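[audit] Reproducing an earlier prediction to check determinism. Same input, same settings, fresh worker. If the tokens differ from the archived copy the diff job will pick it up downstream; this log only records the rerun itself.
[audit] input (121 residues):
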Amino acid sequence: MAGIMLCDDLIFFSRVAGAARAMGLDVRQSRTVPGLLDMARREPPGGVLLDLHIEAIDLPNLLAELRAACPTMPRTVGFGSHVDAETLRKAREAGCDLVVPRSQFVKMLESSLPQWLAPPA
């Protein structure tokens, strides 16, 4: 089961990728939106983990492009700063399947990663 994580923080990505490997899962990193879309076109992911604080992310457009690039829309999980409620709200409105503060994302990681990377039923 493969997923893609849009994140430019190598240390945080390594933490997520390590948790995934321990569960027999694969998460690949993209540091840019175009890179994420290219990866999704080449090998459609079951899930996409989105750091909502990536510069210049147009989430409604990204989700529309993901929908067009993949035979089945991958599950999308957005995470961001708990103090930036506006960004979290906009991500929910844009259509992410789940949006959580980064601290909650970390707490849920080990229990929820298999579900997050599985294609929606």
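[audit] rerun output stored. Observation attached for the diff report: The domain at 2-108 is CATH 3.40.50.2300 (Rossmann fold).
[audit] end
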